[in-house]
Input
Amino acid sequence: MTAPNQVIPAPPADLPGTLGALRAAGHRYRTVKQELRDNLLARMRAGADRFPGIVGYDDTVLPEVERALLAGHDMVLLGERGQGKTRLIRSLVGLLDEWTPVIAGSALNEHPLHPITPASRALVAEAADDLPVGWLHRSMRYGEKLATPDTSVGDLIGDVDPIRLAQGRSLGDPETIHFGLVPRTNRGIFAVNELPDLAERIQVALLNVLEERDIQVRGYQLRLPLDLFLVASANPEDYTNRGRIITPLKDRFGAEVRTHYPVDLDLELALIRQEADLVAEVPEHVLEVLARFARAVRESPSVDPRSGVSARFAIAAAETVAAAALRRAGLLAAADTPEGVRPEAPVARVGDAVSVTSTLRGKVEFESGEEGREVEILGHLLRTATAETFRARLAGLDLSGFTGLVAEGTVIETGELVSSAELLRQVGTVPGLAKALDRLGMGDAPTPEEAAAGVEFVLEGLHLTRRLGKDVTDSGRTRYGGRG
Output
């Protein structure tokens, strides 16, 4: 299976084009599991990255996956949603040979040195060394199916093709079968996502292919020694619940690997940085707030732990905050800009994160008793994450310049459509601002938008630690002033 719009490269011109040339080149047949083992060992010996793009599993999940691959075991990944199970499964394709020879025109990607259907064996015997050889890119050697209760045997295994029957073929002839996803992934990797959702009769059909090496379609049994590496994913609760998986199929998997969410904040941040497609600058302290927020939501007793909170929650939150900054820049550009003042650049602020509590609540499964309080719960957890980030970043720093400013009666107003120039004008020159911006990772020369983001974060942190008062106007603007 290839990604949408993925361009498959053309095979190199120097690859053998016939069976005779293939033999002369010294090519040898290997099973998929042998191929994965050899290529994994080669990367280990070279010190190369074995699973590019997989974050947070180096010391936990990946060693277990590597042991399964080296042992030649089919495996099942168990974990809650959004733990990167599918991403990890798809990364296994990179361990296949870039190009592999196939019998030209074979629906089952049969190897020229190892044909499995009667028609292909006859073709090899007849053409001998003149047999045309095609080459298959590794991206075409992956099949995937999201299991649903209505998945049929025909989808996975195949069904009788009435047109071929009408052409005079018999039911016992493999040529009468329109093959499903599993046989068409022969000599590749096949993944079943959410395995427990397969009906029992479909699980039996899958077991026959993997264990008995035959296909049973409409009462007819067909010998078909497929060469596959099977990997499945499942929620632990569904997989271990009796009745959801037939015991022989569960026994077929040689390795059961548990996945998990990022174990610490740094890994959560690394994942957001890698995966989020940000349309505006999001300062590090804002990303940290969002990472802490996602972790707080996962740990909240108000959230159903069996469902989990996907890593996509934090990624989508970062993208939403960036979009809010871009929206502000776009709307402010439509307003009259004083001559000589440059347009607002899109830089996210901590206040932009408030919109996340409503737009992303659908990604979280709450406990049944919390109905109607979803946004309230998420808002509280976001404030908690902001306060924790404030303490972690600015603990011990003298921020009396800010509290002294409002003690003199100054009210600082910010909000979604308050420009950075307007916010900085209200604050003016504040003792300690430069040190605060430096602690927030903005360096010696932050842009006005970055400085405004830092100022808003300091103000919000001082409010959350009960050193500044705060209220929201009818127009949606936030006003920071004295306590009380």
About this structure: The CA atoms of residues 211 and 252 lie 8 Å apart. The two ends are 61 Å apart (CA to CA). The longest helix spans residues 311-334.
